[in-house]
Amino acid sequence: MMQGYLDSGELVPILQGYNTQPLEISMVYPQNSLNNPALTAFIEFLR
User: Fold this and answer.
1) Residue 29 has what pLDDT?
2) Origin, by domain of life (predicted)?
3) Which domain holds residue 47?
């Protein structure tokens, strides 16, 4: 999504030498919310 902005120079990377370790997270949500497409997409994004 951002490649065009990086290529044009409008957006520049910062903190290139800064790397983070993967972070384990947990989510708590009502089971009946699994029919919510936005929640399902968010869960898949985090995986």
Assistant:
1) 83
2) Bacteria
3) 23-47
